[in-house]
Amino acid sequence: MDKELSGLIANLKRRNIEGIYVPSREEARVKIKQLILKRATVGISGSKTLDELGIVALLEAGSYEVFNQYKAGISREQSLQMRNLGCRADYFLTSCNAVSEEGELVFLSANGQRTSGIANADNVIVVCGINKIVPNLEQALKRGREQAATLNCKRLDWKSACLADGVCHKDICFAPEYKRMCCQLLVVESEINPERLKVIIVGEDLGF
Ligand code: SF4
Q1: This prediction's pTM
Q2: Which residues line ligand 1 (CB under 6 A)?
Q3: What one-character DSSP code corresponds to residue 54?
Q4: Is 162 exposed, middle or buried (CB count within 10 Å of its CB: 0-12, 13-18, 19+)?
Q5: How far is the CA of 105 from the centre of ligand 1 (A)?
Q6: C-beta separation of 108 from 185 below 8 A
C-alpha cells in the first residue's frame, strides 16, 4: 500500500471509521463476506461499484437474508418494502461518490435510500475504488456531482438536466421538465459508534 493510501486509512481512523485496503476486486468480495456475519440481514443501495463486484449474487448465494429491491419479478410495492427493510438491516452495503484524502465521504442520493441506510443500519460497509479518491472535500463534492452523478444519469437514462450533454446544470435541474438525481447530499465527517462504519478501499477503478 502506498503512502497516500496509508494516509487515507489513518485519516479515516481519526474519524472513527475503519479503512480497509484490498488490492483487487476479488479480494474485496472475500473481505465483504468475512465482515458480514452468517444469517445476517443485508440491505443494498443501487451502485455500479456493487454491480461490478457482483455483490448481490454473491450474498444471495450465501447464508444471508438480502433485501434486494432490484430482484426480477417483484412488484413496486415489494421493491419499496425491500428498500425500507434494507435501511434498517444488520448490514447496509453501498458505495460512495467520492472520498477525500482527509477521509470525508460524499454520497448523493435521489430518494434518500442510500443516505437512510448509512444513517440507520447497524453496520455500514462502503466500497470505494481508488478512482474515487480526491485531494479534498471541495474536489469530492465536485466529483460527486460533475462526474459520478452525470454518468449515473446517463447509465440509467435518468431525465435530468445533465442527460443530454453530460454537464451538470444544477441551477436549472429543479425545473419540472427534469428529474433530478442529486436531491440529497450526505457528507460523512465522522462516525460516533466505533466499528459501525467500514470503508473498503479497492486498489482498482470501480464504478463512476
Ligand atoms: S444536472 Fe442535476 S442530476 Fe445532473 S449532476 Fe447536476 S444536479 Fe445532478
Answers
A1: 0.94
A2: 145, 149-150, 153, 160-162, 168-170, 173, 180-182
A3: T
A4: buried
A5: 19
A6: yes
Residues 6+ apart with CB under 8 A from 62: 33, 38
CB 111 within 8 A of CB 122: no
Low-confidence ranges of the chain (pLDDT < 50): none
Q: How many residues does the chain have?
A: 208
- The CATH code of the domain at 3-134+184-202 is 3.40.50.10420
Q: Where are the domains of the chain?
A: 3-134+184-202
Q: How far is the CA of 97 from the centre of ligand 1 (A)?
A: 13
CA of 162 to the centre of ligand 1 (A): 6
- Beta-bridge partner residues of 88: none
Q: What is the pLDDT of residues 120-129, one digit of tens each?
A: 999 999 999 9
